[in-house]
Amino acid sequence: MLKEITLSTSALRCLERLRTIDDYTYAHSVAVGSLMLALARHMGMEAGAVRDCGLAGLLHDIGKATVPSDILNKPARLSPAEFEAVKLHPVAGHALLRAAGGLPAIVLDVCLHHHERYDGKGYPSGLRGEAISLEARMCAVCDVYDAITSPRPYKAAWSRPEALRRMADWTREGHFDPAVFAAFEQILLASPK
Ligand SMILES: [Fe+2]
Hints:
Layout: H1 9-19, H2 23-42, H3 47-59, H4 69-72, H5 80-86, H6 89-100, H7 105-113, H8 134-148, H9 160-173, H10 178-190
The structure holds fe (ii) ion.
């Protein structure tokens, strides 16, 4: 995956920062970057846009570097106050990437808006529908899929069919862009295992 995306000096520095967070966040970031590459390619985006999607997926959670590690690594569900602290990571990440400089604008946009929901109930801005960039709508799908199919100290990983079934329900409830989720589902249903 790293071979396919353009790693500028600035992106490499961000990647180093990402590695200091924790193993789960690093592995999750690599997985989301890979899923973003596959989804962008499947949706027919041009090569430069595909690379930007990979980089955006890789760096989307970099703001977690600013979340206290006892909260980030808590082996249980978060309290409401702890969850509020975690919810600051898109804005913090956007500031980190802006300070790094030299990154494509869409990478910063995805970092800031990957927790927006298609129905407007997400954060930090409560953007709705197409007001959320296509790339941020794609990252929302890839992010949630990798999170729920990964084992965590407080919950077992869901299987691929279970994850897709639950995400189809959430798409009907308004969480994801239905067209983006349909494209994502096509990739996974077509790939082995
Ligand atoms: Fe996130």
